[in-house]
Structures are given as structure tokens and as C-alpha cells.
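User: Sequence in, structure out. Go.
Assistant: Echoing your sequence, followed by the C-alpha cells.
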Amino acid sequence: MKIRRRVLESLAQHARENLPNECCGILLAEEGDVSTLSLALRAENGEGACPEHRYVLGHKAHLKAVEMEASGAARIIGYYHSHPQGSTKPSHRDTGQAVADVTYLIIGVRDGVITHAAWRLEGDSFVPQPLEVAE
């Protein structure tokens, strides 16, 4: 899987802006090139009780992504969220709410340093997914 550099930079900015809370959103690809993450839609983190450790994807962004997919403008490839404590590994909560056949990108933020990792759910656990940054 590839990700456009500008998209990755946008995700890092979103993660920084939402500190100390988790950010979240939807990863999309242009319909003609579903192997490249070329767009990210920011979503509101609807988690009311503990947004610094959990996220609930806001429905407005999800509806917009579905509309884009229905119109042929883009295809939903996966989802992203941040871990303000720095880890890019999926948590137990992440595993519990994940579905198969999509990419999950986790942005770790620790002391101003941004890291990222992509994952796919296989069976009951996540497996790392190679991610290449493209211009």
C-alpha cells in the first residue's frame, strides 16, 4: 500500500492539533488507483467519556465518504486514528472494533515526534501492512 506524502503530513497535523485526545478519520483512494491512499477525511472524535484513550468515528465524515464512494469519486480504503501516548500498535479496543479487509493507520505522537504504522485485521489479530510514502 502507498500513501501520498501530503496525506501523511495532513494526518500528522491532525494528530498534533487534537492532543491530548485521539483524532480519527477515513482513508480514501481515487477510484482509478485503489492501491494508493490519496485522501483523508477528518472526522470528529465522538467519544465523550475518554477521548484521550478512545475514539468513535463521527458520522458526518463517514456519510461524506460513502457519498464520495457512491458517486465514483473515491473509494474507502480504511481508517486512521492517533495514539497520543506514542504507540503505533493497535490496542485491545482497536482490535475489538475493527473489521476485516480495510487498512488501519495509527499515528503515534510522543514528545512532538510522529510515527505511523499500517495494519490489517486477519482473524482475531492485526498484522502489519507495508506502507510506502509516495509523492
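User: And one key feature?
Assistant: Residues 7 and 39 are 6 Å apart (CA to CA).
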